[in-house]
Amino acid sequence: MKISDFIYFSKFGLKTVLFKKKDPILGTIILTDKCNLSCKHCSVNNLTAVIYPYAQIVEEMKILYDMGIRILFFCGGETFLWADNGKTLRDLVIEAKEMGFLIVNVVTNGTYKIDLTEADLILLSLDGDRERHNIIRGDTFDKIMENINNATSDNICFYMAVNQINKDTIPFVCNLAKKTKNVRAVSFNFHTPYPNTKELELSREDKVNCCNIIRDMIKQKMPVFNLKSALPYIIDNSFPTPCYQCVVMENGKLSVCGRCIDIDGLCERCGYFFVAEYTLLFNGNIKIMMEMLATYLKYV
To answer: What integer is the mean pLDDT of 25-40?
Structure first.
């Protein structure tokens, strides 16, 4: 992270905490819900299979930038499927950087060639060891690992949604992140029980066990891109929701925090670690502030 970016984010954080502001800093644009996979935990793939046009995406980027957002995520569906009249995902990342976004990240399932050096982080969904990952995502584990090894940059971060199928594979994924070329870290979430996926939801006991393992992984210096101080809040969903500093844009619709905000009762069962981390940060939690500073300087 550049020193100038660090100063910008520090000023934003101080103003937010001191004046209890609710201005957003992180935005996500959904490029498409089209996806080449049909994962067990996902309820938002291929609902329309529409790929939104370049001009629309750029306009949405401008709207988010004018709102003060400086951290931008591109999500799908599968982001590497996005293309429009010769434009590709790379063009969107370059456009975002030129527009002035300070951090531009991309989320992918990793089944396509990974050649995107312009992105700050590529969050790649890896959901356990080969057996458990393939149960969740189809026979894709080996292809993903091949693509990672052939990637053109070391800006990859594993992105694991922990659920009833893969909850015992956290140490495996941490070790894999540590030893795999081109991978910087692993970021965890707990499964959020979207419609028709409740059977994958973790119990409180499961969350306690998983958080203890994640805490141990951090103590062992594994490259975990999550904050140890946030784990107790994540277990009991005792962090404030929604996260006003995060917004999602999909086809012109702006949602605070995430798309799930419209689903009754789902906020209270949110499994997104970054939501807990950001809400605690902007509510002035000192431990979270110090940990986030160290973590972002290390991995972004």
So the answer is: 96
CATH number for the region 3-13+25-299 comes to 3.20.20.70
Count of residues in the chain: 300
Other C-beta atoms lying within 10 Å of the C-beta of residue 84: 17
CA atoms of 45 and 153, how far apart (whole Å): 28
pLDDT band at 258 (very low <50, low <70, confident <90, very high): confident
Q: How far apart are CA 210 and CA 202, in angstroms?
A: 10
**1 and 296 Cβ atoms separated by less than 8 Å:** yes
Domain limits, the chain: 3-13+25-299
Write the pLDDT tens digit of every residue in 170-227: 999 999 999 999 999 999 999 999 888 999 999 999 999 999 999 999 999 999 999 9
User: In whole numbers, what is the pLDDT of the chain averaged over residues?
Assistant: 95
Lowest-confidence region among 35-49, 112-126, 149-163: 35-49
Q: What is the DSSP string of the chain?
A: --HHHHHHHHHHHHHHHHHT-----EEEEE-BS--S---TT-SSTTSS--B--HHHHHHHHHHHHHTT--EEEEESS-GGG-EETTEEHHHHHHHHHHHT-SEEEEEE-S-S----TTSSEEEEE--SSHHHHHHHH-S-HHHHHHHHHT-SSS-EEEEEEE-TTTTT-HHHHHHHHHHSTTEEEEEEEEPP--TT-GGGPPPHHHHHHHHHHHHHHHHTT--B-S-GGGHHHHHHT-S-SS-TTEEEEETTEEEES-GGGGSTTTGGG---HHHHHHHHHHTT-HHHHHHHHHHHHHH-
Locate 275 and state its tokens.
Answer: 């939501």
